[in-house]
Every structure is written in structure tokens, then in C-alpha cells.
Design goal:
single chain, 235 residues, mainly alpha
């Protein structure tokens, strides 16, 4: 379960807001490209795949290279998933980007690698292995899982080519057209996910605000107040 729940926890509010801002920027583009359903599947896949790579690489480092620090270290946050989304978003793009005001531009396919090094230089305590595993998950999806999925879908399409009584075409073609229409819709699933992460990360400050409001309304001193009752009433 920690492969999934570790993405929900963040070190502090700054870590949470930075990840959510990056997630919304990349998620808005990928959701328009793939549609809400496939984007949800993509985020779920990258959550399990990237965190699974962290555990696998850390296990190899401990058993083969006698380096247990990565295995017993802590890695939390959505950063690995964001790096995987970044790799998918920049794949095949011919654009160039300027990162953090640097005096040179970077091709889109190398942006994730440059940001990996910059983040590690600016924030040495950041999980280098987690970010690297996110890039690995994105590359694994692009060069292995996505071609395999297309191959399986093509074979299924040819094996189940059933004429449609209503459209005069194959059922697979109708489903493909419906999927393309769904992908063109502008949806906001990524924003709802971001708001959910914000509410989860701010649950402790919100509890404190609720306690302060309750104390002001009742005009009772701090030592004479039942804080357990406050949490029950306001949360």
C-alpha cells in the first residue's frame, strides 16, 4: 500500500504546492491529449511503476553494492509521478525551453534530465532516486508499455471486427471515434486531484483554525477548553 500512499504525503506546504503547481501544468496538457479516463489510468500506472522502481533499485543497491542508505531512506511526494508525466509530455516534441532563467535553452526531451540535476543541486535532501525512477517509469511507458498496448489493441480489433447494425462500420471503429471525441473535451480532472491533495495537506492547519474560531466564539480561556470537543464539533 505504501507504493500508492507515499505519493499523498509531503514534507511541508511548500513541497506540496510546488508539486501541485507542476502537476496542474502538465496534467492540463496530457488530459486534453488523452482524455480524463486514460489520464487517470496514466497517473495510477506511474504511481505504482515509479515507486516500484524506487524499491527495486534500492534493493539492488543494498544487496549487490552494499549500499543500504537508499533502501532505508524515506521518499514521499508526487515528484516521481510528475517526472514521469514530464517525460511523456516532452516525448517527440521539437520545442526548446529555458529552465530557471539559465542563459541557454534545453530541448524538450532533455528537460527532465536537466531538472533532475538542478533540483539535486538546489535541494540536496531531495530524493534523487525517486526522481530518477520517475524518469525511468516514463521511458518504460513510452518505449515498452505503450507499444505493447497498441499491439494488443490492434490484434483485439482485428479479432473482434464485428459489423455494426447502426453505423454500417466495425464496432472497433465506432469505439475509436467515441474515444477521440472524449479526448477532445476540455476536462478538469487534474484540478480536482490537485484540490484533493491541497485539502489533505492542509488538514492540520485547518484543524488549528477551527480550534481558534471555536475559542473566540465561546470566549473561554485556553486552559479551560476541551480541545477534543472542538475537533469533534468542527472536523
Amino acid at each position: 500500500s505504501r507504493l500508492i500512499t507515499s505519493a499523498l504525503f509531503h514534507v511541508d506546504e511548500l513541497h506540496l504546492f510546488y508539486n501541485l503547481g507542476s502537476f496542474v501544468l502538465k496534467g492540463s496538457k496530457l488530459e486534453r491529449r488523452y482524455g480524463s479516463v486514460r489520464f487517470l489510468g496514466l497517473v495510477s500506472l506511474f504511481t505504482i511503476l515509479s515507486h516500484g522502481l524506487v524499491v527495486a533499485i534500492a534493493s539492488v543497491l543494498r544487496s549487490r553494492f552494499h549500499s543500504p542508505s537508499a533502501y532505508y531512506g524515506h521518499s514521499v511526494g508526487l515528484s516521481a509521478v510528475i517526472f514521469a508525466l514530464k517525460v511523456v509530455l516532452s516525448h517527440g516534441s521539437m520545442e526548446v525551453y529555458s529552465i530557471a532563467g539559465l542563459p541557454f535553452t534545453v530541448p524538450a526531451k532533455y528537460v527532465a534530465w536537466v531538472e533532475l540535476l538542478l533540483i539535486q543541486m538546489v535541494t540536496p535532501n531531495a530524493s534523487f532516486l525517486g526522481h530518477l525512477s520517475g524518469i525511468g517509469a516514463g521511458l518504460l511507458y513510452i518505449y515498452a508499455l505503450q507499444p505493447l498496448w497498441k499491439l494488443c489493441r490492434r490484434r483485439w480489433y482485428h479479432a473482434h471486427r464485428t459489423p455494426s447494425r447502426f453505423y454500417g462500420d466495425s464496432l472497433g471503429t465506432v469505439l475509436a471515434a467515441t474515444l477521440r471525441q472524449e479526448q477532445k473535451r476540455v476536462s478538469y480532472f487534474h484540478i480536482f486531484v490537485g484540490l484533493a491533495f491541497i485539502c489533505y495537506g492542509l488538514r492540520t492547519p485547518l484543524a488549528s483554525i477551527g480550534q481558534i474560531i471555536a475559542r473566540r466564539l465561546d470566549n473561554r480561556p485556553d486552559d479551560d477548553y476541551d480541545w477534543t470537543n472542538i475537533r469533534t464539533r468542527f472536523l
